[in-house]
Amino acid sequence: HAADAQMTDLMTITRFVLNEQSKHKQSRGDFTILLNHIVLGCKFVCSSVTKAGLAKLLGLAGEINVQGEDQKKLDVLSNEVFVKALISSGRTCILVSEENEDPIFVEPSQRGKYIVVFDPLDGSSNIDCGVSIGTIFGIYLVKDLNNPTVDDILQSGNNLLAAGYCMYGSSCTFVLSTGNGVNGFTLDPSLGEFILTNPNIKIPKKGKIYSVNEGNAKYWDEPTAKYVESCKYPQDGSPPKSLRYIGSMVADVHRTLLYGGIFMYPADKKSLSGKLRILYEVFPMSYLMEQAGGQAFTGKQRALDLVPKKVHDRSPIFLGSYDDVEQIKALYAASA
Ligand code: AHG
Ligand code: MN
Ligand code: MN
Ligand code: MN
Question: Where in the numbering of this chain does the Fructose-1-6-bisphosphatase class 1 C-terminal domain appear (predicted)?
Fold first, then answer.
């Protein structure tokens, strides 16, 4: 009857977070309300992504974002949904989105104490061919609610209160950490609720998969090139690793979290700081990896120790299984 008991004891994400937050005496439910609005945005994007092809939501929006990328219709739509959902929560004071050049300062009457940094739709290049995409977010506390400033955003990842992602794939999966480990929830479309399916996720200490865009090999620096070489032609007699690269960070990181291995977006001669954005891609995924027992490294330092100078700053990133990242750290240390 254990299964039946589990069936009737629905651990929704709201109930799970309320339980967690109730451990903080001063908690007044603000975080849970904020999270519920993020979850609402994800449910909307999940439903839009699922029927994008039918609802003529594929293709370009005809605009260019601050990244110099062609915005897809779903990029713009999901961004608007998240911005509106977060402001209407009444719990945010600053929003940073990949799709907005400047941070959004919420007007005082609707202001709350949280800052949310987010990538509303990650893996946009995969939208039109139906490959998994996602949403990535991080949550900080503002220093002074009466005076939110850009300095509240340009801070190290060590101040993150929580981070997570939602992956729109064969199922809609929400992965979250509020600082006490990582938990995975799956959307039950018949209930419209995210149900706890992967409690206390821990990444394997060592993996058999490496994940990188080999098409950039010509531009890699020596430590990256040496590391990838060691994945293909191991010197210690171990079998070569498998290469898995989806091109959506959320999907590549989710597989790495569950199966182990390493995900890399290295610096290269074309982009000296790599491609992934610190605030809403590198920090949230690095936070989750550390919470799951893995680690995240930039080629120079622990990723969460970075302090971005500008809102859309980028950084190289190597994250995943603890032992695998140790190897790349040793190669960079040797070349320093
Ligand atoms: P976004 O779609 O939010 O702009 O992010 C795309 C990122 C990330 O999802 C992925 O890991 C990376 O771009 C893939 O880049 P390449 O196509 O250069 O490998
Ligand atoms: Mn983009
Ligand atoms: Mn992205
Ligand atoms: Mn994006």
Answer: 203-332
Joined together, the tokens standing for residue 35 give: 């999270």
Which pLDDT tens digit goes with each residue over 185-239?
Answer: 999 999 999 999 999 999 999 999 999 999 999 999 999 999 999 999 999 999 9
260 CB near ligand 1 (under 6 Å): no
Around ion ligand 2, residues with a beta carbon closer than 5 Å are 69
Compute, in angstroms, the gap from residue 121 CA to the centroid of ligand 4. Answer: 4
What pLDDT is attached to residue 6?
Answer: 61
- Residue 324 confidence (pLDDT) above 80: yes
More confident residue, 251 or 9: 251
Neighbours of ion ligand 3 (CB under 5 A): 119, 122
Residue 314 Cβ < 6 Å to ligand 1: no
Q: What's the token pair of residue 104?
A: 């959004």
- Of 261, 312, 237, the residue nearest 282 (C-alpha): 312
ipTM of the complex: 0.99
124 CB within 6 A, ligand 1: yes
CA–CA gap between residue 13 and residue 23 (Å, rounded): 16
